[in-house]
Amino acid sequence: MTRSRSRTEEFEELRPLLFSIAYRILGSVSEAEDAVQETWLRFASAAAPHTSAKAYLSAAVTRISIDVLRSARFRREKYVGPWFPEPLLTDPYDDPARSAELADSVSMAALLLLERLSPLERAVFVLREVFGFGFAEVASAVGRSPSACRQLAVRARRHMAQGRPRFDADRRERDRLAARFFDAFRDGDVDGLRELLAADVRLVGDGGGKTPQLPRAVTGADKVSRVLASVFPWLARIGVTLERREVNGQPGAIFHDRDRKVLNAWTLDILGGRIEALRSVSNPDKLGHVGPVADAWAVYREAQQARRPAQ
Question: Which long-range contacts (CB under 8 A, 24 or more apart) does 283-287 make?
């Protein structure tokens, strides 16, 4: 009993780290949770590891995540419309010494860049660049030599550097701008929205073909501000509310229907005092961990009906 209890305690202490590794490799909360659970099953039934619990568990969750990612990539090639990671409201792992790397690496923009890497490159980058593992530990986790992992890390850094997202470092300024944006959005204030958007801002949605969604990305401050200003006042009339939240480490919001069920999650990319990108995730398959999911089509039909008398 003592050995089992001790092993359980070791695992629970490391669970936040394991989830954070798996989420960055997979871009999916549900798949990361499954990978962590599979890691526990292997750990609980294995003989006593020759390495530390952290080394054993980190290697196990990485290998499981790589296998899951390889099969997931085939599904994502057939995905309807733009694919975004599942929104993450809270990263359970905290390391003050690596806070900047952790915050940047969990953003939607960074996770989309990671999608361009091979599964091995992605795992090596996450372990080495985000969590600071030594190359010997990385090599053990991915089943390659340390020298091969160095080469993988160089390639991954090169790919990431080409489009690495940059965000305003001052969190208070960023949050103040986000507050102004959501106030203007609630009011349907076209001019107020336009002055907060970058000239080449993009509004993109991930509905997976399962919810009402823009047919394509909307680009440019004028078009995006007009689209946004036309949305919320009508939704508010039928009981839709927005709750400002940090999503994937960036300013964002969760939208609810009148029954407090989740409609979608938004994230904002902010740089230079302007919003450069707005991403909306409304695919119900990606929102179950946030809360009970709303019927987006029913909300859409009700909003359309609410607009008819004014037309």
Answer: 283/206, 283/207, 283/208, 283/210, 283/211, 284/210, 284/211, 285/208, 285/210, 286/28, 286/84, 286/86, 286/87, 286/206, 286/208, 287/86, 287/87, 287/262
